[in-house]
Amino acid sequence: MSSETFDFLDHGATWVRADFHLHTKQDKQFKASDNDGAYYANYVGALEKAGIKIGVITNHNKFNYHEFKELNKEAKKKGMYLLPGVELSVSEGAGGVHVLIVFHEKWIESGDHINPFLQRLFQGKLQAQYEMEDGRSDKNILQVVEILNTYQKEYFLAFAHVEGPRGLWNELGNGRLSDWKSASYAKVRERTLGFQKVRSRDRKKEIQQLLDYWYPAEIEGSDPKSLEEIGQGTKCYIKIGYCSFDAVKFALSNSTYINRVSSEIPRLAHSYIESVEFAGGIFSGQHLKLSPGLNTLIGIRGSGKSSIIELIRFALGIEFSEKTLDKTYKDSLVKYALGSGGKVTVHAVDRYGQHYEIRRISTEKYPTVYVDGKSQPGVSVRETVLYKPLYFGQKDLSSTGEGFEKDLIEKLLGSKLNGIRAKIEQKKGEVLDQLALLEKLSNVQDQIADYGNQKRDAEFNLEIYKKYGLDQKLEKQLSFAHDEQAMNSRIALVDSLLTNLSDLIVQNENEINIFTPYASTYNQDLLDDFNGMYASVLSIFSDVKVQENSLSLSVQKLKGKRNELKERKNGLVEEFAAIERSLAEQLKEEKNISPESFRKLKQKAAMATLMLKELEKADKKKVEVELDLQRQLTELNSLWHEEFTLIQKELEHINECDSSLKVSIGFKADKEAFLEYMKSVFRGSKIRESSFNLLVDDYPDFISMYQEIDKVMGYVSQGPQFRILFESNVKAILTYQVPNKVSIMYRDKILQQHSLGQRASALILFVLSQRDNDVIIIDQPEDDLDNQTIYNDVIKLLVTLKSNIQFILATHNPNIPVLGDSEQVMACSLSKDMVSIETGGIDVPTVQNTIVDIMEGGDEAFRRRKEIYTIWKPSNY
After folding, report:
1. Are residues 364 and 344 in contact, defined by beta-carbon separation less than 8 angstroms?
2. How far apart are CA 36 and CA 26, in angstroms?
3. How many other C-beta atoms are found inside a 10 Å radius of the C-beta of residue 464?
4. How buried is residue 245: exposed, middle or buried, by Cβ count under 10 Å (0-12/13-18/19+)?
5. What confidence tens digit (pLDDT) does each residue in 302-359 have?
6. Which of 257, 33, 243, 370 has the alpha carbon at shortest distance from 844?
7. In angstroms, rounded to a whole number, what is the distance separating the alpha carbons of residues 148 and 556?
8. Which residue from 56, 326, 450, 775 puts its CA 20 to 30 A from 203's CA?
9. What is the pTM of this model?
10. What is the arithmetic mean of pLDDT over 750-769?
């Protein structure tokens, strides 16, 4: 009996509710009055209502072949699968022990082999004598297993209601139970895959100690006595990728090592890719359905695994990092796989269960996000939809060249640093603004000296004119000139103020006036106050507009007064001209003395005096700017340290894990990078490298050097030249961030000192230890790793993490899908430029065959290795 296709398994191994202890109306304790036709439909309806997908029919000491066939047929219509079984009462204990026997489909494929088995157990008795709850075989469990094994068909055992009447733990004393750890019970232990209805934690621990910690899965069954009781009581879920006996057995058998049995469906708290569709190219028409857990792409080289990885990266818009190898090759894979105009559509689910489509055509620069068919501009794929997806292409994990640690940090932390880095960039801009302002004020002292000299020179020369009385004779004319200059300077000031105010009002008037009172569900009292205050602000703004008009009128009045002065001055033109003619006649014998030269000297002295006042203000401003620059530099340094602290906290998650990997980070500790940058800035200066080394040793960055520039000059023999170069590059060097230094230690040794394989091992541990990425996509993580590392470090970590992280891995190593318990295996094969993909969990027979063929070298190689391993003694390896 082969399993049929069930839609709920399309995404690979899935959690389904299972009931291992079901009774039907063939059981004497079960009450049902329906006729057969209605009964089958009603029974399956009760299973459906309870959400049961896998059920085991286990009537007391009885199996009805016809009923089971009809029920299973009806169940399959509803997407459910039933297995044949029996609740057998064996001879152990005072009242007998109830054991659930679950039979492989082959027991009923070519007729009924279950009832002949039951007849052997109750030899000499009529069916009516034993087909009931208190019916009891005279065979003990050891004898039952012996008889079962003679049929050479698969089955497994589960002990019913172990703590209750006729339960294994209740009926057998501790002494009898402790016998189970002996060799004589080895076959029983091998076949026992479940204890049903375990309730007492203390009793459970006691049983585990009695059995030397051999302990099967804990399962549940509703043990119903009517249709209404089906599914009642504690629930049980198993994870399967196939509806068959083998798949159920696989789930129970591995429960010690992997999580395939649970009392509840683990809640998905992470975002994940639900499926990927391809239109055009070598995958055209393929719809690849993924599991939220571990997905493994397998296939021979050139079968399309890497292309799928790269297409998912392309669709999500994940850019290559600086250290990514073979960027051109990886881009060419996308172009080849999609072809001209091809499209990738990723169906994704965010952390809150919202579904999205992410579409990207081969020619588009960026992906587009859709919700319910409508595009969502601005929605971030790698924040809103999928939280921090990580991608590593082939060999990316082993490319541990210079700067790899920094590159890895950038990949792992991604947008988590965006906020602090935006602040850093803003602060850098403020520093540059202060430097630009300081640059404008840099020659103030020189200008003060220059205008001081001009003033003194003019005043000295004016002394010569005193004996001619030009001060008195030209006093009225000079006074008018001074008055006009004073008016002009003040009008220019208020005119500029008015222009700026008008511009400010125009820029903000529309936004300020769009005022709708805001309503609140919970804080309307506060919002009423707020709205009232905001209305007052609008009123003040209206007053400002009125004042703007008033200010404009006032400026016009000022200009009117200046025009009156000009008119008055124009009315004195003849008077001033007469004075000029009289002075010219008086001074005609004096060669270098004239009214014109006197006026120029007076203007020069006045201008120098005015400029000196302004420059003295600027000199005070320069001090303020320098102080403000120091404050801005301190704040920039604090932001750099805040960024460092964020990174440090993230790295602490790795060190908290019990692994052989330790990571540390030092603030501004990459002295080599600092030294190289300093040498590049001062290239050609002939400053000795030893001087640079001393500076790097004593100063953490250029900011500290800037603050002690006079002291720094003593470090270099070419001090003046150093200062000139320092000041000419001051904008670049004061905003240069000395890199933090990340050190990765693997097994107490620096990463770079390890072999290529060990480095790759450390880095994949580094990636997996983050535990803050919802999706991790890696192409061949096993490259350069040995099998022991893959199992001990990688797979064990994968198994613990995959319930909270979706993994999409392309691999050639069978340990990853098999021991990693891959929920969805995707086997790729290329034929005639088209890739076909076979999918399913590792409990799917066809997938198992493909794994053996592709990853183990075929059935013969796999079987031969198994034979050799069997020959070897465990003590020898």
Report:
1. no
2. 11
3. 14
4. buried
5. 889 999 999 999 999 988 776 666 788 888 889 999 988 999 999 999 999 999 999 9
6. 243
7. 113
8. 56
9. 0.72
10. 69
